Amino acid sequence: MTTTGRRALLAAGAAAGAAALVGCTSSGGEGPRRPGAAEREAERVARAEAALRARSVAVARGLLERYDAVLAAHPALAPRLTPLRSSVAAHVGALGEGGTGGGGTGAVEPAAASGSPVRSASAPARSTTAPSPAPVPVAADPATALGELAAAERTASDGHTDALLAAPPEYARLLASVAASGAVHAHLLTEGARA
User: How far apart are alpha carbons 156 and 33 in whole angstroms?
Assistant: First the structure.
């Protein structure tokens, strides 16, 4: 066999091997390719994280609506509540970023501008596509309303803490931070007022 014959034989063998390799990796007309176990697991994890983000944003939005209701019912509390409310609004945006929770940072309007009292109880911040929930009941007594708001902060903080176990590491750190902030807010709304 000559050198040219060997080269032709090797080239033909390489072409046949490449054709066989392509046949192994393509569907070859057998229908759509089925996702592998790793792809299915990645999809399951992504769906679980999206659901977790949606629940976390819903908890934060509920708390934000409670702040709006208390500010509308007790405008004199605005200097005390507006900074806490702004923090909760930032949490709504942060918890929804990068996921499908629907809580972008631009979607939350402040309840009061420059520390001034809330002007409209009928316009709490919420998504334009979400149905209007029932109004949040607020106690007539400001001290009682603050106590109820502190309880709502503790409940939201506990919810974020419970979600830590199912969260991916980066989101778990965010949830832990938001939960800690809620605990501080609850303290400021109750014990902090007595000092």
Answer: 43
Cα-Cα-Cα-Cα dihedral sign, residues 10, 16, 17, 22: positive
| pLDDT, tens digit (0-9, with 9 covering 90-100), for 112-144 | 333 333 333 333 444 445 555 678 899 999 999
Between helix 37-73 and helix 142-163 the angle, nearest 10°, is 170
pLDDT-derived band at 191 (thresholds 50, 70, 90) equals confident
Inter-residue contact 69 to 136 (CB < 8 Å): yes
